[in-house]
Amino acid sequence: MIDTLRLTAEDAAALLEDGEVAAAELHGAYLEAIRARDEELHAYLTTVDAPEGEGVPIAFKDVISTRGIETTAGSKILAGYRPVFDATVAKRCKQAGLPLLGKTNMDEFAMGSSTENSAYGPTRNPWDPERVPGGSSGGSAAAVAGGLAPWALGSDTGGSVKQPASLCGIVGLRPTYGTVSRYGIVAFASSLDQVGPLTKTVRDCARLYRIIAGRDAYDSTTVELREPVEIPAAEDLRGLRIGVPRELNEVEGIEAGVTDAVRRAIDLCGGLGAEVATCELPRSVEYGLACYYLVAPSEASSNLARYDGVRYGLRAEGNGAIREMYERTRDEGFGDEPKRRIMLGTYALSAGYYEAFYGQAQKVRTVIAREHAALFERFDVLVSPTSPTVAFRLGEKTENPLAMYLSDVLTIPSNMAGLPGLSIPCGLSDGLPVGFQLIGPQFSENTLFRAGHALERALEFDFVPPRLAAKDRA
Amino acid sequence: MSWEPVIGLEIHVQLKTRTKMFCRCELGFGDPENTRTCPVCLSHPGTLPVPNAKAIEWTVKLGLALGCEIAPHAVFHRKNYFYPDLPKGYQISQYDQPLCTNGRFLVPGPDGDAYVGIVRAHLEEDAAKNVHVGGAAGRISGADRTLVDFNRGGTPLVEIVTRPDLRSAEDARIFLQLLRQTVVELGISDAEMEKGSLRFDVNVSVRPEGSSELRTRTELKNMNSFAFAARGIAREIGRQIEIYEKGGEVDQETLHFDPTREDAPPLRSKEEAQDYRYFPEPDLVPLAPARDLVERARAELPELPGQRIRRLERDYALPFYDAEVLSGLPALAALFERTVAAGGDAKATSNLVMNQIVAAGVDPAVVDGLELAKLVEARGRIPRAALDEAIAASGTPGFRADDYTADTAITDAEELRPVVERILEGNPSQVEAYRGGKTGLLGFFVGQVMRELGGKANPKVVNELLREQLGL
Ligand SMILES: [Zn+2]
């Protein structure tokens, strides 16, 4: 009997390697779990019946192009669209022998922090189905936390891997911008989008990152890794200099339970031998969110222009005039959030506004990058909560986009600087997981993995949602 | 009052790289529709552009030929607008940081050199092609349906923008022809207007002579030949002058010519200020052409047609017209130079080369300069017919001018007839072959007669005698 709730990818690989479990059996166990639990969770949009590959199965956020398998990016406008090619990350997973379990739910075009913006209905949090799993990679996070996939890929623009990992009590990495190919990832904001692993453990995260990372000739913004990815084994944090940026840990809106759990984790870092000191990131936190909400919608307004009904996806017939066909297709095909962001972005890029908005935001971005770089002269890692809150209730923030946007206030600053960030669960608040964010300089994934792994061992967080564990036993 | 036209050009040149600008689809002209496509140039979700290094190298080359500065840091921008031939909803182009800026292009003219300022030359991707079905031939108005052929979409395209430095339709024609020849000789484009690999728009305004103001301009689009453009420009200049002289104002508008019908009047449309929402293309990193590569390209630049005209004028004291015609075909200019180097008089050589060699359809590349120089020298004292014969034969292997120019040539038919008869008797099989239709053997008989007489026979008379004897 395979316990998919508890089985890590590493354990699963060992079972396969030792011949204790056949690939088909392992895959079948996950399909069984999906049958049993996904009706409630709705983590998947599509499942694959007979996947190829003898390795540990995986789930992909529906933003990742998969040849011949429907890829909707959570949008009605791409309903029925089957890519004719594999995204580079999909190809790399295939080459590594990972069978694809299915495509997971997400906020439409990765725009959102709760997965409620999916055109196909929300995903529910395995810890509490009345609550959201976070987003936009909520389907991938819920699948891993709910034992419906041993590991998964998501994509992170403003926090879309780190934040759902945090809300679902699992590990999520947003890699250094440029280390993972974006080829075949349905674009949201090109200068920020980055694919990242969602896993149960830091070691699994490193294993999956090792598979997907590295330069890709199809993405000219990618670079070669500076050093091979190491699977972490360290059990202490000796020599690690940890900075605790005051603004990231004290910004208004962080729940007390979150602060407590993060505080305990920081204390534990000291106990594990790290040097811990507070520091400041004033401008990054003050301007990060505003800056993000100019850059990301601007790029999105352009990236989403290709959904015009001409070549693929939805086409609404008009009166024969091309303009009307465009307008009706886009009106029927896009949900409110993409429409909102297309309007924001179109406005920010308009003549007369460009300098004040997009142009200024790019300058602020440089300031944010410099402010982080200055801290990394003194620290190896910066830490904070990943999300200011634990998982919130479905519908709680849907009527207030600004409140929803604030979910990413702690993940956005380092994203704007192109830096890697790892979220690991560090405890519970009111029975719901709290995420701990570790940010490093560019290409410091190995450091983040080492620190995350040592901390994870010391924290002994149980990633199995108690209500599912109880149900399983029953 | 007399009026001065002010003309600027915007030229698009398709590069003939093997593959497209941002994907590796091969370029093809005239292939079946939508067979040169891939997910990238069809803009499937998630696809990304990867720049064509050759296209960048060639744009640098062209920029250098235009006298431009090559930017150490150039940026691709997105130009956003909706149109079915633009599958991404934006064109990857260049905006405020183009690859080549601030050039000066030499345009030699009959009254001395002129320079046309080049504002910029930048690299972008061509749009696909909309095919309007039904309705008036190929036009969008009245069409039943529009189909899109994406084969052309993504072809590397260089846009060249001149300063409004041109002052007449003829200036514009000369400039365009020289520019066309330049890109062809650089080997970077076919620059064929019929195939659309060279296209241009013209901005025209007029102002009182001596003034430096810039008045409202109109834009002339879709012209399909230099001559057509020159006529269109001249007409537009006349129209604007007439408006001003009647006290009216010129409207800022675009005149769309119907490329399929030269006689049709242009369609007019108001110029709308389109907001393209340019921003730096985040899917690409900035271009930084290495200094040494740029310098190597500069060193490898061939002599450009404009420079060649000027050099021919200066070094050989040729009139502008001669220099322009000779330069128009590099092989012709080369033959001219070989011949003069072998002693031919420059002006006489120029006349001979650009008139008779061209008229005779002789390939200038295979003509021996030394032999041609002998013809140039002898041209005054040998019969016109002999010279024509010689020119016609000048491209054949082993051609010797002396065979046609010997100054003591026997012209008396009665004196030559026995020799001709003797040669024909001595070569019966060739005679038979000739009569059997191998008329090319005539030259063989002429040669034999000439050899017999040490070249001292008038080839025209020999020819006549031979034809007479051979019964044709
Ligand atoms: Zn292509």
Which secondary structure elements does this structure contain, and how are they paired or packed?
The complex is a heterodimer of chains A (474) and B (472).
Chain A: H1 9-17, H2 23-41, E1 44-47, E2 58-61, H3 88-95, E3 100-104, H4 138-145, E4 151-156, H5 162-168, E5 171-174, E6 194-199, H6 202-212, E7 241-245, H7 246-250, H8 256-271, E8 275-279, H9 282-303, H10 322-333, H11 336-349, H12 355-375, E9 381-385, H13 401-405, H14 412-416, E10 421-429, E11 432-439, H15 445-459, H16 466-473
Parallel strand pairs in A: 2-3, 2-4, 7-8, 7-9
Antiparallel strand pairs in A: 1-3, 4-6, 5-6, 5-10, 9-11, 10-11
Helix pairs in contact in A: 4-5, 6-15, 9-11, 9-12
Chain B: E1 3-14, H1 53-65, E2 69-70, E3 76-80, E4 90-94, E5 100-109, E6 112-125, E7 129-133, E8 145-149, E9 156-162, H2 169-186, E10 198-208, E11 218-221, H3 226-245, E12 253-256, E13 267-270, E14 279-280, H4 291-300, H5 305-316, H6 320-327, H7 330-341, H8 346-359, H9 369-378, H10 384-393, H11 402-405, H12 413-426, H13 428-435, H14 442-452, H15 459-470
Parallel strand pairs in B: 11-12
Antiparallel strand pairs in B: 1-9, 1-10, 2-5, 3-4, 3-14, 5-6, 6-9, 7-8, 10-11, 12-13
Helix pairs in contact in B: 2-3, 5-6, 6-8, 7-8, 7-9, 12-14, 12-15, 14-15
The structure holds zinc ion.
Task: Explain what the structure shows.
The complex is a heterodimer of chains A (474) and B (472). Chain A is of the alpha/beta class and 474 residues long. Helices cover 39% and strands 13% of the residues of chain A. Chain A has helices spanning 9-17, 23-41, 88-95, 138-145, 162-168, 202-212, 246-250, 256-271, 282-303, 322-333, 336-349, 355-375, 401-405, 412-416, 445-459, 466-473, and strands spanning 44-47, 58-61, 100-104, 151-156, 171-174, 194-199, 241-245, 275-279, 381-385, 421-429, 432-439. Chain A is globular, with a radius of gyration of 21 Å. Chain A starts with 8 loop residues before the first helix and ends with a helix. Chain B folds into two domains: 3-289, no CATH class; 406-472, Arc Repressor Mutant, subunit A, CATH 1.10.10. In chain B, helix 6 (320-327) crosses helix 8. The longest helix of chain B is centred in the middle third of the chain and has 20 residues, at 226-245. The model of chain B has no long low-confidence stretch (mean pLDDT 90). Chain A binds chain B through residues 63-65, 71, 73, 78, 81, 83-85, 87, 182-187, 189-191, 217-221, 298-299, 301-302, 304-306, 308, 310-312, 322, 326, 346, 349-351, 354, 358, and chain B through 39, 42-51, 78, 80, 82, 84, 87-90, 146, 148, 275, 277-279, 282-285. The site of zinc ion (ZN) has 8 residues of chain B, from loops.
